[in-house]
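Researcher: Quick sanity check before group meeting.
Model: Go ahead. Protein one:
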Amino acid sequence: MNILPTIRDSDLYEGVIDVDPNGFRTRTAARAIVLDDLNQVALLKVGNHNYYKLPGGGIEDGEDVKQALARELLEEIGCKAQVIGEVGEIVQYLGEKQLKQTSYCYLAKQIGEKAEPNFTDEELANGFEIRWAKNIDEAIVLLENSKTDDYSGTSIVKRDLTLLIAAKKLI
């Protein structure tokens, strides 16, 4: 899988000195840029923190990356999708959370019907909702225009914008 740039706190905030990542806990995740039949791109709007993100999430014990991706897409955007390509692997070092997160991102095509998501209580509390951007360019603009002051959201937007720009070269 293509290795994309690593994201550190110093990439997000001017003047921040990165924390030594030794001892950070680790998390792996699966994400996708999902296109429907009209080439609309599935995004999640995080309304309470004013940003957009790609669907996906953590890989649970006993799952491989693609199993986790399938589960996350059903939960977050209410549909199945077929992987049609690899976008890349991206690592985030989140000093405030003492976390190293590695995300594996794919390009996928929505299959079957769109249904309602099954958001967690935490996602509902954060104001999650599905938004289908009309194309990848609109998805990029939505992320570029996200104005969050949330620490996690700032890193997520940087990560997912990097992934969308990489995916645009594949479409």
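Researcher: Fine. The other one?
Model: Protein two, sequence then structure:
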Amino acid sequence: MVARTPRRADLDDKAQAFSGQLGRTIQRLRRSYNLSLSELSEQSGVAKSIISQIERNETNPTLATIWRLSQALDVSIDRFLAATEEEPFVEKTVRNETPEIVSEDGKMRLSIIGWIKTVEWLQWYDVVSEPGGVLESDAHQRGSIESLSVLQGTFEVEIGGKIETAVAGESLRYRCDTAHTIRCVSPEAGRATMVVILKAAVME
């Protein structure tokens, strides 16, 4: 038996810790999609026994296996790997570095305040609108949910021929996987927070 050097032992310990975090991440994502081990195996092409071993931290998966699982769980591999990191951090974005989306009429602005690492499944925005501002949105991916929480003024949402209105302190939640329109209908400027959950909301 070959004795481990201190450096080798440290690397082995870190690899074991990473593998354990990865296994917990796979299990959490699989359960969030209500997938059984068999279903994830069928979708990923990775044997059910291997997935089970990964979740129990009994094996170190290859990069190819990680890639297949990330694709089956519809998560980019960099975010998939980043999800295993548990170190605390503080990240700051200053105002002039915050990207914006502007409506075609130029009256409504959405500051993208969400985290870039969650953009594939969770997005959130600070919405500011002049009176009469209109934002027309195409359909998001199937099963997506949007939540508009009004902080100031009055907004209305039109989707599928139905219109609902909300004033300050109220929220509107709706499926946004069909074309929809948001309007600021108050005589004064409006402000709201918008959160978009992409396909994580399983409504079937």
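Researcher: One line on it for the slide.
Model: Helices lie at 6-32, 37-44, 48-55, 63-72, 77-82.
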